[in-house]
């Protein structure tokens, strides 16, 4: 039986993959903690260590986020958002700590007409053409 259900929009990934290099001794200690059952795997250890550090410095992050006027979390910009800004004669300044995404139906021309600057601490999801069109406005 064939299904008539199809996904209208692919679900974006909820995390970004990063690569780190560790010294052999540090890696061995991580493996020992996993072997002893403190963590389920290396990734669990690394995520926990990162979360602990972020929690430890939460006040600094909060102050910097406020000072730099960053949107915290997920921020999506649709074609309609950009068209409305263009109609109003405004240019958007995208400042996000987390994930900023620009809809797949946004053309490079519309992006250049509506977006003045892009500063993302985290990840930016947009079509390769839109990213290329905004390369001189991205820091």
Low-confidence stretches: none
Number of E-type strands: 3
Please tell me what the overall shape is.
Answer: elongated
Radius of gyration: 20 Å
The major sheet is characterized as: 3 strands, parallel
Organism: Bradyrhizobium retamae
Protein name: CopG family transcriptional regulator
InterPro entries: Arc_rbn_hlx_hlx (IPR013321), RHH_8 (IPR041088), Ribbon_hlx_hlx (IPR010985)
Pfam families: RHH_8
What brief labels describe this structure?
42% helix; three-stranded parallel sheet; alpha/beta; 2 domains; single chain
Q: Can you give a write-up of this model?
A:
The chain is of the alpha/beta class and 139 residues long. The protein folds into 2 domains: 24-56; 61-137, no CATH class. Helix content is 42%, strand content 21%. It has a 3-stranded parallel sheet, covered by helices on one side. Helix 5 links the parallel strand 2 and strand 3. Helix 4 crosses helix 5 (108-114).
């Amino acid at each position: 039986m064939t299904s008539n259900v199809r996904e209208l929009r692919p679900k974006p990934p909820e995390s970004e993959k990063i690569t780190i290099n560790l010294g052999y001794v540090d890696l061995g200690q991580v493996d020992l903690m996993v072997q002893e059952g403190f963590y389920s795997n290396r990734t669990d250890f690394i995520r926990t260590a990162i979360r602990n550090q972020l929690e430890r410095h939460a006040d600094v992050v909060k102050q910097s986020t406020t000072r730099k006027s960053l949107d915290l979390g997920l921020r999506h910009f649709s074609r309609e958002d950009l068209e409305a800004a263009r109609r109003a004669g405004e240019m958007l300044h995208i400042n996000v700590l987390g994930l900023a995404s620009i809809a797949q139906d946004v053309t490079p021309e519309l992006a250049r007409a509506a977006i003045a600057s892009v500063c993302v601490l985290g990840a930016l999801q947009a079509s390769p053409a839109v990213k290329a069109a905004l390369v001189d406005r991205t820091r």
